[in-house]
Amino acid sequence: MSTKRNTNYQQILLQQSRRLFRTNDLQLLWGVQNRHNLRVTIKRYLDRGILHAVQRGLYASVPPAQLDPFELACAVAGPYAYVSAETVMARAGLIMQLTEAVTVFGVKAKELEVAGQRVICRYLHPRFLLDRRHIQEGERYALASPARAVADAWHLRLDYYIDNQLSPTVKEAEALYQEIYARP
Containing H/E element for 20? Predict the structure, then answer.
């Protein structure tokens, strides 16, 4: 029995607004049933430069150096991951330390370097990870508000020191911490 080959995979891929894909995403996107055929197609696209390997099982439709560091960090951290803690607090002027790594919260704790970008993934229980209050959902990544970033940092370490104690964000974070993390 012969099957019709779909040669529009590249066109389907480039029509997507997202630029990072897991193997399962490509399988669903292309409608490929056979895992072997999927692997062969991915390998051919890697060889031709249509896809770029980011890490095992994660591919980009653009060179990894052209990806936003936050987009990349959220993709490697897994589903529902969002940028938070030191990264957001430094951008908001709440801490004065220079952060070169992107800190994300996700389903696994790990530190890695991907495409020249250092990523720190911190574990957050799914109950809290799925609570999306004060998280701005972008098209390519999610970003915590400064108050949520402080609350997340306090959840990890209650004695986390905030340099700018006079910021109204700290008071907002105290209420948010009680609302999200301190309830039974």
Answer: strand 20-22
Partners of 102 in the beta sheet?
Answer: 119
- Give this prediction's pTM: 0.86
How does pLDDT run across 4-46, given as a tens digit for each residue?
A: 555 688 888 888 888 999 999 999 999 999 999 999 999 999 9
Query: HEC profile for 90-145?
Result: HHHCCCCCCCCCEEEEECCCEEEEECCEEEEEEECCHHHHCCCCCEEECCCCEEEC
Q: Is the dihedral of CA 131, 76, 49, 38 positive or negative?
A: negative
Domain boundaries, the chain: 9-65, 68-180
In this structure, what are the phi and psi dihedrals at residue 56, rounded to the nearest 5 degrees? -60, 125
Query: In the block, which residue shows the tokens 């607090």?
Result: 89
Q: Which CATH class, in words, describes the domain spanning 9-65?
A: mainly alpha
